[in-house]
Design goal:
Blueprint (H helix, E strand, L loop, with lengths): L1 H32 L14 E3 L4 E2 L4 E10 L6 E9 L5 E5 L1 H4 L7 E3 L9 E2 L4 E3 L4 E7 L8 E8 L5 E2 L2 E2 L1 E5 L3
Antiparallel strand pairs: 1-3, 2-3, 3-9, 4-5, 4-8, 4-10, 6-9, 7-8, 10-13, 11-12
Length: 175
């Protein structure tokens, strides 16, 4: 009888140690692969955008190509500010939330034509669903000189970066 009780207690101890070890390894691998050991990472918490393919023309037309690559899938990410900056960081022109809230649907091209999953103006910002890649045509009321510029977008919470992704791209004004 004492042999059985020792055996059961030893097995319980082994199970607890194994559980703690496996949990620790799982959490460690997640953090190492997705953001290091400095902070916890949750890619479904904050929206993130990539702006690859964005083009600026000398006549003041901006083809803003936005891909939403992270964030909650239950609602869209809301872009409330788009800026065109000189290389030194000075703002050349910007579109605020009220301007972005009234972009005609004819100026928005969605790569994926999925009902209910389209980039659109919401009346208070520009909504970009998770996984959507869209091109939005924005017009400045002026011409821009040839040269390099920075295009930056801000989410409704005021962030211009998340998960190591900065929501900006360098562009050269084209003729």
């Amino acid at each position: 009888m004492s042999f059985m009780s020792v055996s059961v207690k030893a097995m319980e101890a082994i199970a607890v140690v194994a559980f703690i070890f496996v949990t620790g390894v799982t959490l460690a691998m997640y953090q190492i692969n997705f953001g290091g050991l400095s902070h916890l990472v949750n890619y479904s918490k904050t929206p993130a955008y990539e702006l690859y393919g964005t083009r600026l023309y000398e006549n003041g037309t901006l083809f803003l190509q936005v891909a939403r690559v992270a964030g909650p899938d239950t609602y869209g990410g809301f872009i409330s500010l788009v800026q065109v900056l000189y290389p030194n960081g000075t703002v050349l022109y910007q579109w605020n939330e009220s301007q972005l809230a009234h972009i005609p649907s004819s100026d928005i091209t969605n790569k994926y034509d999925l009902p209910g999953h389209l980039t659109h103006s919401t009346g208070f910002a520009l909504e970009v669903p998770l996984g959507q890649n869209s091109t939005i045509i924005l017009q400045m009321p002026m011409h821009v000189k040839p040269g390099n510029y920075i295009v930056r977008v801000y989410d409704v919470d005021g962030q211009d970066s998340a998960y190591g992704i900065t929501f900006q791209v360098e562009v050269m004004a084209q003729g």
